[in-house]
Design goal:
Layout lengths: L1 E6 L2 H6 L5 E4 L4 H13 L3 E2 L13 E6 L6 H15 L9 H15 L2
Helix pairs in contact: 2-3
Length: about 110
């Protein structure tokens, strides 16, 4: 099993490439969740609940890939996050550098 990080944060792209496969996209948080949902459908498991920081513009989802069946807990979390995301529009933070760094710190902690 391998770690996969799907992110729209360039700091995460460069900061964890030696610890995980990184799928970096210049897109919005909703698209990052959609991509993660596709991985969950293929059998990946979420390493954290994406609902914790649902309103943040920079989104990094850490998954454990290699599963053969859909993990119902991961499916429930990602589905809930997608429904919640439909009702909000995350805006780029005024302290963009700080937001990117906090997102990177979160991913590094998960990958330990």
């Amino acid at each position: 099993m391998n770690n996969l990080v799907i992110t729209n944060n360039p700091l995460v792209k460069d900061g964890v490439k030696d610890r995980a496969v990184v799928d970096y996209r210049q897109t919005d948080a909703e698209e990052i969740l959609d991509l993660a949902a596709k991985e969950v459908e293929k059998g990946a498991k979420l390493r954290e609940d994406p609902n914790k920081d649902i309103k943040k513009y920079y989104k990094s989802i850490v998954l454990l890939t290699g599963g053969t069946e859909v993990d119902v807990v991961s499916k429930g979390m990602i589905d809930r996050a997608l429904v919640t995301m439909k009702g909000i529009e995350p805006k780029k933070p005024s302290m963009e550098g700080t937001a990117k760094k906090k997102d990177l710190e979160k991913v590094v902690l998960i990958l330990r």
